[in-house]
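Give me structure tokens for this 267-residue protein.
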Amino acid sequence: MDHQSTPKHRNGRKKIYFASDFHLGVPTYKASLEREKLLVQWLDEVRPDAEAIFLMGDIFDFWFEYKSVIPKGFVRLLGKLAEITDSGTPVHLFKGNHDIWASSYLQTEIGIELHSSKLIARFGDKCFFLAHGDGLGPGDTAYKFMKKLFQNRFNQRLFRWLHPDLGTRIALFFSRKSRRANNMKEEKNGNPPLQDEMLYKYSLRKSEQYPEIDYFLFGHRHLPTNVKLNDKARLVILGDWINHFTYAVFDGNHLELKYYLNGKPNS
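Here you go.
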């Protein structure tokens, strides 16, 4: 597992921002563009006091980097992120299950630091366990098998032989199909109790393995959550920017989950 040391504060900056699951590109071009503009507005508001910005995965509903082609669109967000990294503020991206194929373009052209696995990082006096969250915890064996197929370099080379228009269409078709199936399942059964959530079980187990962790922080599940695991650790799930428009901010002492509605952050 990757480890990262405490970042040094610059010019009085001390806040670390976390956001996840924007899924830009769906459900329609218009809806995606509105969310993208709101996201850029949020980035403009938080950047003055941001020591670092962590994007915890699934920025795009589909992202694949061909050798000379990237998916169409998202120029406002990519330009803003490049502007932020050019100014010296680091931006980190944890690969999610929808942008698992993020690679050298985002690093070279945008200046984003990519993370393919879990990360333990210390900010100030607090220790964080960071990951997108997909495939963690017990169960979900079918997805874990599919993830291994997606991560296989030979399979990625095969997919690259598809014309980008065809590859993107196929990927978005299966993404929407999976989302509809999950929505129908949740409408029928509702969300499970927190104690049955895979990330909750996973964090409890990891808190025994890593008793120094103060915050287990994930994306993926789209359910804004900030709860105590035990006397020391908390579980934070960031929610999404489809329905909830949530993010987290760490001020050097405390982590707070916030809502960003109509351009105005609310506790």
